[in-house]
């Protein structure tokens, strides 16, 4: 891949480990293969408010929320700084643009060879942070590419209105197999399965963020990385069972601040780099998160992947673990049958590499504009 100029739009601004790390990974991979890759710093006013440390909306409810969260102010500010520093230090980005008009002007000025939307749920209109900017709804000479885009649990009717924009993407890679027919319907052509960007980098690439002399290296713990709020008590009980069976203590990283967060083993302020360190040094991992599942496999961890709602149409975790032959590591929170056998990563790692290699070939063909998707 020659020194092509590429712009990327995604949820790089979210205070979410998976969102920021997948953004880092895609840009870093493109840089490794010779592209001049930059993240388009597109953040709408709504997105800015949603990611604020404090609730800025009017109303007594939000005043109460801010008061309740006061004990966590120092931790929230530390976490915010950790994310901001990571973006500033590791994700080269443009000046901020806040709407489609400004984004088009930026793309025209920079004369990108290609502009990429993704990865993550960039085509899911139900996400609070969703914006039409993720569809590049304007004419441009740049090649429009969707890389590992996700629509979450959206129906075809939810996304049909964006078809006029999606048809301008000659190359679309999709993260979830279950959404293939829906995305093909709005694009008007076939799409391919691609891996999450974090898998484009090697374990060794991610280990550059790891402090191998950290005190964490001497601890024996189950890292419990949880996303969903409602089943927290149930999932904590499952984690305690796993930890007891393996003779481990538990460290929790949870994406919410609730009464459980007052417990001493809840980590409420980890930066993206610290998250990677907690993941790397863990003796085992339990998670209900997609990126928690993926990083567990990157670092070859004994892992337990809980799906909280067996009726969910969000197939990310199932698709990924099935792809690499680890579907047996899935269990359902309402009737947990916890896997007992250990994972043989000598069989898993080649499957991860094979899927990543196919995705790399797709990216190269798209940027070189070799029409492989018809």
From TrEMBL:
<dbReference type="Pfam" id="PF04230">
    <property type="entry name" value="PS_pyruv_trans"/>
</dbReference>
<dbReference type="InterPro" id="IPR007345">
    <property type="entry name" value="Polysacch_pyruvyl_Trfase"/>
</dbReference>
<protein>
    <recommendedName>
        <fullName>Polysaccharide pyruvyl transferase domain-containing protein</fullName>
    </recommendedName>
</protein>
<feature type="domain" description="Polysaccharide pyruvyl transferase">
    <location>
        <begin position="16"/>
        <end position="308"/>
    </location>
</feature>
């Amino acid at each position: 891949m020659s020194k092509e100029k590429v712009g990327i739009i995604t949820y790089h601004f979210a205070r979410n480990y998976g969102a920021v790390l997948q953004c880092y990974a895609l840009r870093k991979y493109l840089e490794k293969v010779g592209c001049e890759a930059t993240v388009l710093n597109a953040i709408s006013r709504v997105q800015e408010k949603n990611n604020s440390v404090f609730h800025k909306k009017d109303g007594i409810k939000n005043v109460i929320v801010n008061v309740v969260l006061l004990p966590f102010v120092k931790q929230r500010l530390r976490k915010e700084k950790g994310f901001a520093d990571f973006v500033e230090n590791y994700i080269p980005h443009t000046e901020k643009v806040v709407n489609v008009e400004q984004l088009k002007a930026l793309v025209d000025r920079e004369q990108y060879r290609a502009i990429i939307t993704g990865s993550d749920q960039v085509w899911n209109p139900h996400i609070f942070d969703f914006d039409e900017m993720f569809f590049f709804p304007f004419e441009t000479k740049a090649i429009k590419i969707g890389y590992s885009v996700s629509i979450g649990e959206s129906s075809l009717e939810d996304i049909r209105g964006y078809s006029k924009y999606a048809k301008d993407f000659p190359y679309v890679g999709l993260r979830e197999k279950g959404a293939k027919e829906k995305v093909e319907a709005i694009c008007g052509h076939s799409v391919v399965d691609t891996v999450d960007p974090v898998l484009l980098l090697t374990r060794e690439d991610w280990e550059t963020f790891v402090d191998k002399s950290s005190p964490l290296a001497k601890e024996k713990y189950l890292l419990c990385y949880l996303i969903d709020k409602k089943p927290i008590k149930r999932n904590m009980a499952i984690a305690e069972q796993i930890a007891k069976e393996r003779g481990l203590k538990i460290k929790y990283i949870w994406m919410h601040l609730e009464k459980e967060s007052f417990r001493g083993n809840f980590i409420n302020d980890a930066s993206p780099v610290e998250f990677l360190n907690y993941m790397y040094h863990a003796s085992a991992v339990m998670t209900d998160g997609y990126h928690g599942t993926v990083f567990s496999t990157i670092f070859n961890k004994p892992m337990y992947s809980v799906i909280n709602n067996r009726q969910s149409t969000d197939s990310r975790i199932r698709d990924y673990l099935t792809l690499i032959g680890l579907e047996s590591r899935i269990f359902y929170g309402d009737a947990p049958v916890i896997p007992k056998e250990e994972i043989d990563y000598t069989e898993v790692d080649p499957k991860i590499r094979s899927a990543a290699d196919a995705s790399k070939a797709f990216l190269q063909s798209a940027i070189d504009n070799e029409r492989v998707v018809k």
